[in-house]
Amino acid sequence: MSGLARYFYKSGCVVYGYDKTETELTTALVDEGMSVIYSDDIDLIPADFKQPSSESLVIFTPAVPKDLKIKQWFVERGFELFKRSEVLGFLSANRFTIGVAGTHGKTTTSTMIAHILKDSGYDCSAFLGGISSNYNTNVLFGNNNVIVVEADEYDRSFLTLHPNIAVVTSADADHLDIYGDKTHLIQSFELYLDRIVEGGLSIVKEGLPFAGDISYSRDQSDAEVYARNIEVVEGDFYFDYVRGETYIGAIRLGIPGLHNVENAVAAITVALLLGIDQEKVVNALTNFRGVKRRFEYIVKHERYIYIDDYAHHPEELRAFLSSIRKLYPEKKLTAIFQPHLFSRTRDFVDGFAEVLAMVDELLLMEIYPARELPIEGVDSKWLLDKVILENKRLVTPQEVLNRIEAESPELIVTMGAGDIDRLVKPIKNILENK
Fold it and tell me: What's residue 5's pLDDT?
């Protein structure tokens, strides 16, 4: 949503918005000249938006509660409301569209592709699902007809797009509050691939229950495109890229993570299909700094390491924690996790319990409800009881800070898609002042 806000503001529009809580991102939007409110109060709707007008555009995300008063006010007064995905469909129409979908991996992969196109001089515009660390924004403006779009499967949003190149990074069961079961989720991804324009093609991760024109993998040589010789040298990930006769050796990735090697394989494939020079692709990956809240180093020095990540699905947590273990096998790992949504916690509680047991110490926060009402019997205590780990406890945000202040863990990670990011600066301050 903030990417669209930035797009329309830069296009000369007056932009107002609502969000549930104030964050670093909403503060940035205000600093850039937009107005944001944090109370679901119709009296705060600006006078400029009181009457339906051809000059007014009201955009919402289905992630907001269905009973949001501000949204209902616009509906009752005859405004035509558009989903975020519909507007992305409008903006990408008649443009060469690179759409990146997946239940996880899509934000980093789309940002990586956009960076390669920008850094190499090929250029593009982009609407991303996270803040690019290279550009400190989630929307990029280009001078050509190419656009990179993060294609979101939530609420079938990506079915508004008509990609020329479609990437699918994963299709694990998620958003079952929308889809009901994994079968319907998979059908939605198949419909997304059906929307590829004539002459376009798809790049799909090997092993998914549907095929693409090109299959890719982190390290499976039965895929058409894959990585090999993956190694960590002084904290940096190196790998070789292989596609038939095309071979690129010893690529240094600017961000850590085995899962990011896989994301890079997909991104390289897109870039080479566009005819971008191999050397420019390699240089771009080396100076790629990632996405805010995706394996983001907050503190990194000899005494303390603190990494923040948006992971909120068991498979995302598994990929993130596996990479942490590969990078720092000797360090005690303290993880702070905030579950996101009662329904997701209910649907994947055993998966969460299994993967959270990979850490040495677990500090578990209460579930972030977002758009949902509580579900009886579903809470963080229920999840915690299922985690087979000796050193675990339920904590409030203040107790997290108190514990870090008192114990000074050597390796800390925060994980979650709710408002756990509000702890990032306080934790950083504690560690840097020790």
Answer: 95
Model pLDDT for residues 109-144, shown as the tens digit of each residue: 999 999 999 999 999 999 998 999 999 999 999 999
Mean pLDDT of 98-110: 93
- As a whole number of Å, the end-to-end CA separation of the chain is 37
* Residue type at position 229: N
pTM for the whole thing?
0.84
Count the neighbouring beta carbons within 10 Å of the beta carbon of residue 326: 14
Q: Are strands 333-337 and 305-309 parallel, antiparallel or unpaired?
A: unpaired
In residues, how long is the chain?
A: 434
Stated as kind and residue range, the H or E segment containing 147 is strand 146-151
Of 314, 317, 333, the residue nearest 325 (C-alpha): 333
Look up residue 196 and give its DSSP letter: P
Looking at residue 181, what DSSP letter applies?
Answer: S
**Domain annotation for the chain: domains and CATH numbers:** 2-79 (no CATH), 87-286 (3.40.1190.10), 296-432 (3.90.190.20)
Cα angle 338, 322, 133 (rounded to 5 degrees) comes to: 70
